Amino acid sequence: MTRASAPGKVILFGEHAVVYGRPAIAAPVSEARVRVEVTPGEREGIFVEAEDTGEAFWLREAEEGNPLALAVQLTLDALALGSSPALRVHIQSDLPIAAGLGSSAAVSVAMIRGLSAHLGRELSAERQSAMAYQVEELHHGTPSGIDNTVIAYGQPVRFQKGSPPTVFTVPAPFRLIIADTGLPSPTGDAVAGVRSRWLKTRARYERLFDEIGDLVETAHRAIAAGRPSELGTLLDRNQRLLEELEVSHPRLQELIAVARAAGAEGAKLSGGGEGGNMIALVRPTDASEVAAALQAAGASRLIQTEVGG
Ligand code: PMV
């Protein structure tokens, strides 16, 4: 049996604007992962089963546009296998679907890693990322590429469309609490909403994207210089700009306000928005109080992670 996994991710700064060419920074969340087990099958062909969604199918019978099947097929193509091996692939995920934590890209990367390792050839992070990007395109037409990049590299990255991603180190690790509103929100819907508003009020949206881009660079410099205490205000400013892009949600606002009132240094939504998850920057001494307040406010799930830890 071969086991492989891939982490979830959070976008720290810059979601949505990143689709329009501005930079964004994201970090893997190793506490929440997708795990894949590959075992030899009894008869020829690849059987895929996903524990959390209940999906189960033979690759040869998969419908056109099935993302899992595409991830498998791309891996077989990359390994240039002459014949179809007899395998069972089992997927289990800690990551909520459509919640801004990169579940779809993590499934693809875990699948690519598991299959390629089982078949005797590991693929580079760059290759894994490019393949997962092709699968992301099935989920929504214009993915920026940030999810597949941070998940495949497994390290904090600065990402900008058209430039090679930069992996960066975090000299002073910082703690985040990630809280789920429990409201699923497909990224494609949020991205499509932003696009239609951008088409109507282009100059205004371009200005907002520029402001987000500047803020991302400031945050990147603060992280690289080991000054995470500067991130609180930047998270709050990014959240206000996301509200102006109209991708927030009353439930997100509520959890953000609760986290701040309980002592978080700053908080914002993370990912596509309109539901999904928010992140709060906390000092280790305040973490349990903020977590308790979020839980009391009805967050459906909390994850604590140390960026750079
Ligand atoms: O919701 P997620 O985790 O897929 O993140 C989406 C991030 C966006 O910037 C909104 C879209 C993208 O493709 O970058």
Any descriptors?
25% strand; alpha+beta; 309 residues; binds (3R)-3-hydroxy-3-methyl-5-(phosphonooxy)pentanoic acid; globular; 9 helices; four-stranded antiparallel β-sheet
How would you characterize the overall build of this protein?
The chain is α+β, with helices and mostly antiparallel strands and 309 residues long. Helices cover 40% and strands 25% of the residues. Strands 1, 2, 3, 4, 5, 6 and 7 form a seven-stranded mixed beta sheet that branches. It has a four-stranded antiparallel beta sheet with strand order 9-10-8-11. The longest helix has 23 residues. It is globular, with a radius of gyration of 19 Å. It starts with a strand and ends with a strand. The structure holds (3R)-3-hydroxy-3-methyl-5-(phosphonooxy)pentanoic acid (PMV). (3R)-3-hydroxy-3-methyl-5-(phosphonooxy)pentanoic acid (PMV) binds next to helix 4 and helix 5.
**What portion of residues is helical?**
40-55%
SSE sequence, one letter per element: EEEEHEHHHEEEHHHHEEHE
Helix/strand class: alpha+beta
Termini separation comes to 30 Å
* Rg over CA atoms: 19 Å
Low-confidence parts: none
> Compounds present?
(3R)-3-hydroxy-3-methyl-5-(phosphonooxy)pentanoic acid
> What is the total tally of β strands?
11
Proportion of strand residues: 15-25%
**SS field, number of helical segments:** 9
Give a short overview.
This protein has 309 residues and is α+β, with helices and mostly antiparallel strands.
